[in-house]
Amino acid sequence: MPKLASIPRPDGIGVLNLQGGVVEHVRHLKRLGLNPVLVKETGDLSGLAGLIIPGGESTCLGRLLKIFGLDRAIVDEYHRGMKLWGTCAGAILLAGKITAEDPCLALLDIEIARNSFGSQQDSFTDRALIPEISPTELPLTFIRAPKIIKAGPAVRVLWGKDDFIAAAESAGVLVTVFHPELTPCLAFHRYFARKCGMKPLSAAIVPDLDPSWDLTSWTGLLPVS
Ligand code: GLN
Fold this sequence. Notes:
Blueprint: E1 13-16, H1 22-31, E2 37-39, E3 50-53, H2 58-67, H3 70-79, E4 83-87, H4 89-94, E5 95-98, E6 108-113, E7 124-128, E8 138-142, E9 147-151, E10 156-161, E11 164-169, E12 173-176, H5 187-195, H6 216-219
Parallel strand pairs: 1-2, 1-3, 3-4, 4-12, 5-6
Antiparallel strand pairs: 6-9, 7-8, 10-11, 11-12
Bound molecules: glutamine.
Glutamine binds at residues 55-58, 88-89, 92, 114-115, 143-144.
């Protein structure tokens, strides 16, 4: 029997659980055989290999991060090797520069402009082939999304179109301004889990586009587990 203290945290990926699309990320990670940790306070971060900051409302999330002291704790854990993935509002919080606003965590050398596609009603879907993520064309869902308008030299652009970048990464940080967790796409979650050193189920077992996913899986207001 191993000693309790030597048992690692279950699968080591956390989902920030303050506001926004938490349940949808948790469910995608579970589809990949992972057992994510819900992060609500600084102690929940200990031992995590990675943290997902979900979409939602970045002003609200930024304020809550400060109130709970999670902003500093996340930056500290990042410097200790914890990887980060921000979707939409999460990407805004990770950006080094937010147009006309102060940055929050500032862990990726990008400039991002909030609500750049218009209002909530201008939300839209697209499709893209992103070879670094998947050999399959992936569905993209943009909800009152920001545009990444600049990326520094150390940032790898994964996908962009027209006048904006929509997915980018550094060694420690991944950002997407769209929401894979609101589509059947598991490829980004698998990619992030591997970036964190985890072993998610392979595409041979759960394909990049999960056939068991349907729209009601996130509009059905079901409990997390
Ligand atoms: N418009 C939101 C913001 O600026 C982000 C929207 C989202 O996360 N889908 O914070």
